[in-house]
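Quick question: what would this complex look like in 3D?
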Amino acid sequence: MRARVFVTLRKAVLDPQGQAVGQALRTLGFSELKDARLGKLVELEVADGTSKARIEEMCKKLLANPVIEDFSVELT
Amino acid sequence: MRARVFVTLRKAVLDPQGQAVGQALRTLGFSELKDARLGKLVELEVADGTSKARIEEMCKKLLANPVIEDFSVELT
């Protein structure tokens, strides 16, 4: 089975990389863009029957930095 | 309105960063992990009524490298 993990910077944390992307897109003519924020996507292939809690444990231990990042897990 | 863009490496492209994450997780005891691949998540805040096609254009022009990456867009 597969799982997707989304790791995003917390709202209160500055995201200069996202700001650069946003500025670049507006320079390219995408004036409808208001804000851009960058995060990570981790696609995991795990043994069948792996629980969501187990994947959240992976996030807490390695994939996300809980001080500045939030994460969410989606099983597919 | 908000949109999420998922940028992933194409299947045929080697992903050393994902392999490193996978190895690290297995070292931490997550033996149920079979494979890990890393991608990018771009969260966009755009003007109401922006079409999906317009966001796909952003991907083609800046957010993804179509030679080695696939992308998908999700409007929320």
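Answer marked as accepted. The first strand of chain B starts at residue 2 and ends at 9.
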